[in-house]
Amino acid sequence: MRPKTIGTKSAYADVGGAPVTGTATTEPGQVDGRGWGERHPGTVLVLLLAVLGIVAFAALMLGRYIIQPETVVAVILSSVLPIEETWSSTAASAVVNVRIPRIIAGLLVGAGLAISGASFQGMFRNPLVSSQILGVAAGAGFGAAIGILLFDSLVVVQILSFAFGLLAVGMAYGLSRVRSSTPILMLVLSGIVIASLFSALTSMVKYVADPMNKMPAIVFWLLGSLNHVSTPDLLVLGPIIAVSVLGLLAVRWRINVLTMGDEEARALGVNTERLKVIIILLATIITAAAVCMSGIIGWIGLVIPHMGRMLVGPDNRYLLPVSVLLGGAFLIAVDTVARTAAPAEIPIGILTAIIGAPIFALLLRRNNPGW
């Protein structure tokens, strides 16, 4: 029996009374054509929040030095309650000084990269773009490479990384401007050009670097790791990422309108150029700050939004919060594997590629490739 058409709706669901296109179908006996997650996005968010908490608590216990769960709870509560110390100073130091900062960093970086990728996929109306599409990661990587080559200060390396990440996106945006507008295709092509330029410059820096000291440090940074994250890093970069993530969450319903196309969005009263600038600026700040904190970590901004769509559908009002929780939980889990699976810590960028590529291939095989 042929499925019945039950009405029309946008590929991104209803967006405040906006005109809608396309058709939704359902089999006889179904309420509509949506999955369970699309009908209950609030429940999905609560479940993902619980998963994030479980993953974070497991990360506090696991490592080369295994800590019992009751000891972890006692160490955490001792900071606010007068609890008698029955645990070793090694356990307390591992939880407070090492694992908690890494978990917070993993949450910020994973959530930031995931929501940036989801926002860009909605803005570009393309499921194959990621948070690095405009060259921010390539620019930030070049800045870090220059800092490592010329200076011995981690702070200088992070400042140069952040500055060159912003510069790369600024160059891509300026190159894409055509008659006071920013066509999506021109923006994508400009990002590819700028990313290629900074990648070549980074290769030049590696070519002239000292192969005994500077070169390994540059390569390890570019592969990504949370090993060097400190509390001062979190105090400086954490609020930057958190505020930018909140900014993207605040405009998530407007991204729904933007996915209809510039002409339709303008007809609905949305200033598309200003909205593009806001999304690009916030996503760029997040990605540049994430590279400063952890180096270049790929695949999160590409794979996590697709996993979110499998759970709650393409409506950005729910997709972006789901991407935040999924991205944070995913990177915390990967970081835990990176520091426990081998005698020497594995760079996170290697693991995200090893895990992300098969997951993305599976998603492509299980779902129709269309947008």
From TrEMBL:
From the record, give the transmembrane residue ranges: 44-67, 103-121, 133-151, 157-175, 184-205, 234-255, 275-304, 316-334, 346-364
Tree of life domain: Archaea
Main subcellular localization, coarse class?
membrane
Instruction: Provide the membrane topology annotation.
Output: Multi-pass membrane protein
What organism is listed for this UniProt entry?
A: Methanoculleus formosensis
Q: Please identify the protein, giving its name as recorded.
A: Cobalamin import system permease protein BtuC
- Residue stretches in coiled coil: none
Family named by the database record: Belongs to the binding-protein-dependent transport system permease family. FecCD subfamily.
Which GO MF terms are attached to this record?
transmembrane transporter activity
**Which Gene Ontology cellular-component terms appear in the entry?**
plasma membrane
Cited function: Required for corrinoid utilization. Probably part of the ABC transporter complex BtuCDF involved in cobalamin (vitamin B12) import. Probably involved in the translocation of the substrate across the membrane.
Q: GO biological process: any one?
A: siderophore-iron import into cell
Q: How does it assemble?
A: The complex is composed of two ATP-binding proteins (BtuD), two transmembrane proteins (BtuC) and a solute-binding protein (BtuF).
Sorted keywords for this record are: Cell membrane, Membrane, Transmembrane, Transmembrane helix, Transport
Q: Where in the cell is it found?
A: Cell membrane
